[in-house]
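Objective 1b of the project was to move from sequence-level analysis to a structural picture of ligand recognition. The entry below was assembled by the postdoctoral researcher (A.K.) and checked by the PI before modelling. It contains the amino acid sequence of the target and the SMILES of the bound compound, zinc ion.
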Amino acid sequence: MSSSPLSSSSSSPNVNNSANSANPSSNPSSAFNHFLHKAQLITGIGVTDAERTKDLEELNLRRCEKMKNDLMERSPLIIFMLKHLRLSGCQVPEQNIFCVPCASPFASTSTTASLNSLHPASQTSSDSSSLNTQNRTQDNGPTPLHAGAYLPHPHGAIKLCAGHFFSKQHVESTIAHELIHMFDECRFKVDWANLRHHACSEIRANNLSGDCRWTRELRRGEGIPGTGWTKGHQACIRRRAITSVAANPACPTLAHAERAVNEVWESCFVDTRPFDEVY
Ligand SMILES: [Zn+2]
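Corresponding predicted holo structure:
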């Protein structure tokens, strides 16, 4: 008997709330409350830091997923890579490329964390001031911050760090970078614990993805070293490949990473497969 009023009162408001949240503009009061809550989240007045962080995280995830979906449908670079992966026998379902907040519990699980550090493929070393601070500590041990990571077998997936991107083109080059790692594993049976294998794939990924465009380097604050674009491009590839290999758990020191990159440089820099030439 007593359940009737309770179930009635609990279901009705839910229906109304659902309708209001679906279209807040249809209810002036709800629309105002929605606006007020958004204003609070922006100004920080009347909301907790946790609420603001959660709101920002959700916003970053939505933006990241939207950019990823657009790129998978329209980017010639991404479509080209997905096609050649498919032709090589490695289909990449859309859900295998996903956005996560990189401080999320998922990203910090032990398995994923070790894989992340193996492939911090698109480091954002100078892409934003907040990342700069943390990257300066990388010599002391923490994994370098990155915008994406390839999660090898059995995952065969690409993680994108929502909120770590400064443009859609940055998302594009990050996905392309990770797809080249995926292509290498699909075609060449890469052993990621072998530093020479890892170095070769990093050289190719940084060379072919657009990670080392001169505009990207300027944004990182690296400038264009040397007298010409070619030298700057190669310096960028070498620097980023060494940093990634150095983050491999199998790499004892930075010197080992430098040696691995140097040893395979000549053959891997000119290997542009599946492209005819550098994109
Ligand atoms: Zn990489």
